[in-house]
Amino acid sequence: MAETSFPIVEQPLSAEQWKSVTLGMGDGVLDEGGAPYRPRQWSNTDNSVQVSVSTATGYASAIVQGFFHKIDAPVTLQIPAVTTRTTYYVALQYDPSREAMPVQLGVFTSLDDSGGKFYLVLYRIVRMPNQLLTDAEFSDSYPRVAPTGMVYESAFLPDPDSVLYGSVFFVHAENDLVMAKSPSGASDNSRSWVSLLNSGWDEWGDTSAYVYPGHGARRAIQRNGSSRRLRGRIARVTGEPFNTQNPVGYLMASLAPADRPKHTQAFVTACSGVSSPGYARVEVSASSGEVRAWVAQQSSWISLDGIVFDTN
């Protein structure tokens, strides 16, 4: 049986040995904020896209198969017009035969893995014949790599802006797992510690049809793993009551695909009543994500409190 151990004291590592030592770091963008490697400029004139550096650091860097890649200025890549449906992959390609530059940024129409090649796909662009580049289908992969760590309590967590986006820490005393990421709706330049186990409430604002009635909680969703919980009271913008004569119900919210139950479910929730609290039937659709309510009596508000379901 052959047995190998390295590095050997005072001897250099080969490229293959270096890859073996560092491969455990993972493959991904080293995101220090400022959206490194993001597409920022699309040109229909010359069919090009510009891959940017971070607005925070002035460069973009990544690890691919244990090797480092960095750009310190935006890179313009060509996405030519096509005569048949064509998929373009904007990726960092690792090629072991390219000794001077093992990792390069490029555009590829196929992911050829011969000769040990490997691709870190940043995004995918699908072009159709006679289609402007800005109208092409765009899919964002953007894999990132970040370390994990442990602290005893959350007071000892480092500044989230000082670590890589996606860094994960286990908080021992609080039995919690937190990630350095952007809060919902914030830019990648702003990071905070977000619990992966104990989610806060993500509020929905008023709409052209429904508003917060001024009491109870505002419309919101809480996500804990595959579990989803809704809450909040809703009134009509017009001030008119909800009535029993609406056969299709009232659309209280529309859930994103990741927030929908596996099967359509119905719940009984509270609503205002004429002389006492009334009740409403609320249905959460698995297919459309629509949250619709029907009232048993005329009501000035409907509550989503107590609606809990699983997405698996």
Structure, explained:
With 312 residues, the protein is mainly β. A four-stranded antiparallel beta sheet has the order 8-7-9-10, with no helix packed on it. Strands 11-12-13-14 form a four-stranded mixed beta sheet, with no helix packed on it. It contains one helix and 25 strands. The model has no long low-confidence stretch (mean pLDDT 91). It is globular, with a radius of gyration of 26 Å. The two termini are 47 Å apart. The protein folds into three domains: 116 residues, Triple-stranded beta-helix (Sandwich); 48 residues, no CATH class; 110 residues, Immunoglobulin-like (Sandwich), CATH 2.60.40.
Instruction: Just give the CATH class of the largest domain.
Output: Mainly Beta
The CATH topology of the largest domain corresponds to Triple-stranded beta-helix
Between the first and last Cα atoms, what is the distance in angstroms? 47 Å
Query: Percent of residues in helical segments?
Result: under 10%
Average pLDDT across residues? 91
Q: Based on CA inertia axes, which overall geometry fits?
A: globular
Helix/strand-derived category reads mainly beta
Strand order of the largest sheet: 8-7-9-10
CATH-level-2 architecture of the largest domain: Sandwich
Rg over CA atoms, rounded to whole Å, is: 26 Å
Number of beta-strand segments: 25
Total domain units: 3
Sequence of secondary-structure elements: HEEEEEEEEEEEEEEEEEEEEEEEEE
Helix count equals 1
* Weakly predicted, low-confidence segments: none
Q: How would a textbook summarize the main sheet?
A: 4 strands, antiparallel
Sheet-strand content, in percent, reads 35-45%
